[in-house]
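Write out the bound-state structure for C2E.
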Amino acid sequence: AEAALIVAKQTSRNMVAYNPAIKMATEENISLLGQLKHALKMGQLALHYQPKVEIDTGKIYGAEALIRWEHPSRGMIPPVKFIPRAEQSTLIDVITEFVLEEAIRQLSVWQKSGIDVSISVNISTRNLLQPGFTDLVVRLLNQYDLSGELLELEITEGSLMVDVEHTIDELKRLTRLNIVISIDDFGTGYSSLQYLHQLPISVLKIDQSFVRRLPEDQGAVYIMEAAVVLAHNLGLKAIAEGVENKQIYQFLATLGCDMAQGYLIAKPLPPEKFVEWYGQYAG
Ligand code: C2E
Ligand code: CA
Ligand code: CA
Ligand code: CA
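---
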């Protein structure tokens, strides 16, 4: 009976190994990455820009570049559908290079036409650990004749935990070029509280999962309050993402949060729409 049981277990294990659904999922993944590579070549990847404003003055602080896949038949594909999968392969290196170059090119175009905003770019864990990442940024800034202070890199907490020493070194090299480093999605994922004071960062971006629940949810209020105080005590600016209404904006003002970003101010916009928005907002 025992032998029969072992055979049964092995059979079920084999059935898992050859499960056609899993095989299909893998094939689908490979084909998605293939299509993504093709999309990059065909110019189907584009950046949209979402403004960030200073809460007390209302002044425009900058814009975040957010990637979009403009698929010819499937329409606009949001980054959650392809970035996580690209991050599991070397394709994310190519995508980040595209995003950086496109954002820096846009910066240079906007600077020349009097649109004085800094641009932030989302960086994946892998990118920072990749040798030559800082050199790539330097090369692109030089190519477009821009100084680093107009560029901000948004890094998630989790990515800082992988190789702390190396990451701190790379970040220090970047900040020597006056590039601004911010912690994205603060309060989610792994906590890097232990390293926060060692990192050459200047902005804490508090995750929208807390922001959206203000001001009714007392837990979210405590976390938001604490995050703003923590940021200020560390000499950092605090920014809230996902600000969807006036009530939240006002509440953030009373907490002393420095900046806000969200649909209340504007959705992520394609470059020409961003320029339109900028003209109306600033003018
Ligand atoms: P994230 O960096 O946390 O970006 C914020 C997300 O919230 C964006 O979604 C933005 O469109 C959305 N958002 C902004 N304001 C509001 C609001 O008021 N309400 C709501 N409900 N949502 C708001 P998006 O553009 O779909 O991007 C999702 C995530 O994909 C980003 O999260 C980021 O982690 C990743 N991502 C986007 N672009 C890039 C990129 O170029 N490179 C990498 N590595 N990741 C990217
Ligand atoms: Ca971000
Ligand atoms: Ca977020
Ligand atoms: Ca995120």
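---
Residues 64, 122, 154, 184 surround calcium ion (ligand 2) (CB under 6 Å).
Residues 214 and 221 are 6 Å apart (CA to CA).
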